[in-house]
């Protein structure tokens, strides 16, 4: 990665290769519990931020500026509706059959009355969206989180949820019905839409954090705890989360 290469050159010029290797070893030794790959994860985050500043954020801002909000909402509803079969499969795998029934009703009403998911009529009918991903399924089966990992472009995760992220691409039956190009387009549009929804949140998180990496890790972990139903989880409100870098 570019910034990692720069650090290597600085170490070579100022301290020698041996001192640089020692510094990296110290970083690994002092890593936060649950995050043994912190030094590498920070490098990945630096690369992600570089790509975000150069490409992703400008594209998301352009999308917001060009596409009216009602159309963006319709696109988001369609993308969410396409994910309902994946949620259904994971609800069943987790033994959450009542949630699976609710998910089925959501998909039926939104796909028909909601014109292919453009309109979220199921929520208007009082049928709230359920959660369900394969990382959550693996958790319900007793698998531990594993170390925290910062994925290229995809962002914060852990070993279990990374496996789940890959598996989710295969657990959605619609994936096999949509042509490859359609799945790629869906992923790209979904990524742009997600980034557009979080322009202000990420800006506030970056500008208000003494240690953005530690804060992002904390925000992600607390949000994931809430999704998994762990006791004591505070949800995904950014304003109630402490900045670990301030301690």
UniProtKB/TrEMBL annotation:
One of its GO terms (cellular component) is membrane. This is VacJ family lipoprotein. Residues 1-21 form the signal peptide. One of its GO terms (biological process) is intermembrane phospholipid transfer. It holds the Pfam family MlaA. It comes from Roseomonas indoligenes. Belongs to the MlaA family. The lineage of its organism: Bacteria, Pseudomonadati, Pseudomonadota, Alphaproteobacteria, Acetobacterales. InterPro entries: MlaA. Keywords: Lipoprotein, Signal.
């Amino acid at each position: 990665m570019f910034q990692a290469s720069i650090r290597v050159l600085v170490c070579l010029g100022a301290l020698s290769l041996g001192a640089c290797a020692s510094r990296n070893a110290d970083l690994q030794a002092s890593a936060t519990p649950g995050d043994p790959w912190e030094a590498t994860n920070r490098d990945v985050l630096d690369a992600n931020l570089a790509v975000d500043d150069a490409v992703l954020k400008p594209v998301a801002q352009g999308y917001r500026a060009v596409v009216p909000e009602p159309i963006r909402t319709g696109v988001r509803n369609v993308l969410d509706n396409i994910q309902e079969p994946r949620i259904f499969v994971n609800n069943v795998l987790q033994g959450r059959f009542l949630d699976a029934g609710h998910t089925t009703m959501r998909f039926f009403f939104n796909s028909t009355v909601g014109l292919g998911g453009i309109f979220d009529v199921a929520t208007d009918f009082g049928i709230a969206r359920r959660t369900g991903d394969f990382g959550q399924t693996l958790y319900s089966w007793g698998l531990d989180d594993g170390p925290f990992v910062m994925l290229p472009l995809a962002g914060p995760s852990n070993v279990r949820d990374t496996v789940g992220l890959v598996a989710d691409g295969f657990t959605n039956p619609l994936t096999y019905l949509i042509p490859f190009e359609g799945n790629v387009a869906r992923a790209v549009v979904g990524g742009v839409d997600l980034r557009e929804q979080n322009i202000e949140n990420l800006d506030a998180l970056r500008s208000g954090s003494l240690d953005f990496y530690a804060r992002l890790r904390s925000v992600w972990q607390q949000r994931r705890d809430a999704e998994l139903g762990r006791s004591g989880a505070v949800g995904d409100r950014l304003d109630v989360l402490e900045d670990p870098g301030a301690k």
